[in-house]
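Researcher: We're teaching a course module on how sequence relates to structure. For the next exercise, students receive a sequence and then see the predicted structure as tokens, so they can try to spot secondary structure elements on their own. Here is the exercise chain.
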Amino acid sequence: MLNRLLLFIMALCLGSMLVRLHLPIPFLLGGLVTALACKTCARRVQVGWPKQLREYALLIAGYGIGSTFTADTWRNFLTELAGVAEATAVILGASLLLAFITAKIARESLKSCVMGMLPGGMTLTMLLCEEDKEVNPNIVMVMQVIRLLGVVISVPFLVICLLDAQVTGSSVALPNHGGVHWLVFVPLAILGSFLAVKVHLPTPKLLGPILATAAFAVYTGGVQPVPFWLMAPAQVSIGLYMGMQLDADRIIKTKKMVPFILVGTAILVAVSIVMANVLSARYGFSLITAFLAMAPGGIAEMSLAGMSMGENVSIILTYQLVRLLAINICVPPLLKWWFKPKTV
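Model: And here is the predicted structure for the students to work with:
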């Protein structure tokens, strides 16, 4: 318990330093870097970050992301439906192609590589691993974690360095434009999470609060954002949990795969940049918003990055959400069909 408290305080302090350096998603990065440093430099210290704390943090982050939703978001989605479908198809197609090439060159299981390369489908792929004995869970976990960490760390810096984005906030101290008090998030987040679990939505602890808050915000005309003192610890908790997933033993067992994972992640980011230029030119929103919407990271991480840069979070959320749902709806039956036992 003491080790976890010290870890949390260290991450919170690092996040505060990153705020002063005007870096995006500072507290999430603070938790992530602290966890990686702890696992690398203090291997003898037995410390982890409970999944339950991460899920409580996702409820808060889900409310924060959903509170940015407006009535214009739905209208934008209908207007840009073709672009959303096209973007989803392109990034999923690129992921499957890279998985096929990786499996051929590295001589590893194609099914393991497909699951490991899927953008934003970490929860789904780990659940599928538990059900499928043909899949190597070490490969899937290492591929997913390295891809996610690589995108979360690199994309905000690429946006700042290449696109001259300006960090206008920390994604924790959001402007208050009035609306229903933020305390409404307690029953709202719990109800959204409960319903999401019941209908088997992917990552229900995040998507449930996002969808419930978004619907509530549109209906009431707006809700207040989560205060700084609540959002900052939530981001730290999410970052700590992410960093703790990268296990040295797993990397050693799959070390020959690491170069392929890094190259694959770089190619997915490059595809995202190209597609972002197409979407930005077609629909008129900023290239930064388009890039964050396309980036093969997590829905929470990219949305929070968009908040910190003053970008259109509703567009980022829409594209990331559609891709996540497409992965969870389309990929399992596709895998079952492709890898079905051959009958003689």
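Model: If you want an answer key for the exercise: The chain is about 75% helix and 0% strand. The CA atoms of residues 124 and 328 lie 7 Å apart.
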